Amino acid sequence: MTVAASFCATLVDEWVRAGLTDAVIAPGSRSTPLAVALARESRIALHVRLDERSAGFFALGIGLATARPAILLTTSGTAALEVHAAVVEAHLSRVPMIVCTADRPPELHHVGAPQTIEQAGAFGGALRWAAEPGVPDDSTRWAWRSLASRLVAEATAGPMGPGPVHANLAFREPLLEAPGELPPGRRNGRPWHRVDAVGKVLEPACLDTLVGLARPAARGIILAGAGAGRPETVRHLASTLGWPVVADPRSGARVPGEPGAPTIAAADALLRVDGFASEQVPEIVLRLGEPWASKVVAGWLASCAAAGALQVLVDPDWAWRDPGREADVVIAADPDRVLGALALRVAKDDGSAPSSWAQAWAQAELRAQAAISAVLDRHLEVTEPGVARGLFAWSPPGSTVVASSSMPVRDLEWFAAPRSDPPRVLANRGANGIDGVASTTLGVAAAAAGTGGPVLGLLGDLAFLHDSTALIRGRREPSLAAVLVVIDNGGGGIFSFLPQAPALEEALFERLFGTPQRIDVADLARAAGCDTLEVGASRELAGQLDSALGQAARRGPAVVVVRTDRKANIALHEELGAEVALALS
Ligand SMILES: Cc1ncc(C[n+]2csc(CCOP(=O)(O)OP(=O)(O)O)c2C)c(N)n1
Ligand SMILES: [Mg+2]
Questions:
Q1: Distance CA 61, CA 552 (A)
Q2: CA distances from 496 to 88, 89, 100 (A)
Q3: What is the reported pTM?
Q4: Which residue of 172, 274, 422, 495 is most buried, as measured by CB atoms within 10 A?
């Protein structure tokens, strides 16, 4: 019997009491006591991944999908540092995660022992909390349950919102023995610490301020991004105020609106039209959740601020997501509470006619959607905006779409039309990395297994190739029903939109930015054992997605390859913009 085994079994018992369900483990020896304790607990689903970098994003996907932290366990040495990118993304995206890195005991540090590096403090400021409990010792038994419980509390319910925590766990040999009796836990299986997260309340004085700003404003806008609050709450406030909702698909609020409070999905295209953008200037913007990816929307917000529009930022986690530094008022409270309280206070008589302000937005949105449809219907070949729009429209109710940074997340933002029952859209937009997207999608699929709906990733070819170890699956690992839709435009399509493209000679641009790769996306997918389908024409998209879902359910990740052309993609985006402008004129 070793203390390490008892210590680890206690941590795991406490995590189960806290409701944790998943552990992601990469192989190694030093982590043996915790790996075995996790594996022996039948209430924990185990996911064993070879590459720690990929394992980190897989754990991120579980946290993103469930709001429950996954335990992420690595061995010592560089293995521990491989998860850094996922930790940073979890930090910036407010995704809970419990990172456990095994370490050697103090006497093996600084003496050339193998796989021994500085791990304490490795993730710098990207953590909500870190623990360095030292080599397990019987004299610290009284603190073990608290440690495990505190890790969960800090990852889920701290003042800065959910995020990653790190436990650096030193183990001395022997590493594999049976646990002894565990220190007693709380009665009835309760966790050691329970944090009563009452939510971040809105002070009455703050509500008065908000009501004073919102009520008299005839021209208001709700800008909704990921983390905006419940879509029904957002819609209810919009209807009450008679304001449009400019809704990112990730907000969940990209649902059909009403003439008096329309949903604006085509904001990027609409606000490219100078006349529209300069005429539709609000008095007040209520900003919820993460900013849109669109530079056009960001630029319009800046010009509205310059024209005197007041910006109110609802920011429950003190994340200060205000890259343009425009926020006049920052409200550090839970968005559902803010929206609910505000709706109660500003409720108007029913039956008031839609304002001309709301109607102008509603009409523009209708025309833009019709123009986008008309352009995409004309293109029989498969296109990037068409795939984004088509995927959003096709997704069965209850689906989750994980969108890669670069063009996929933008094309969804710009071209997905509002629908009731929209798919949940997730993305790693904390640090905007193109790394780890396939792994994140698989983590989401692992979390959805058995209970959730279909899971699809929408990613670029470079993002797919960058995370190719996501496809490497152990022979004993269960298959995961995820579909990866890869837009293969032969490199980084987003760079063709940047000034570097026309300014540099083509060969240099291609070598530095376009970076087409030699390996074929479909070949790589097949080499990893994935079923692979191709979409040749736009009318084939829905059928191929249906087939891929079926294959993924039977045999694990399926890859749908969509081949497009970067130059044609620029032209199509221009065509869409021009057609929307024409529709508004
Ligand atoms: C980890 C990481 N490395 C580099 C970048 C810079 N970057 C942004 S977009 C992009 C190209 C992405 O290409 P692809 O995934 O094919 O998408 P596309 O641009 O073609 O839509 C790169 C390299 C990044 N965001 N993250
Ligand atoms: Mg690409």
A1: 18
A2: 28, 26, 41
A3: 0.97
A4: 422
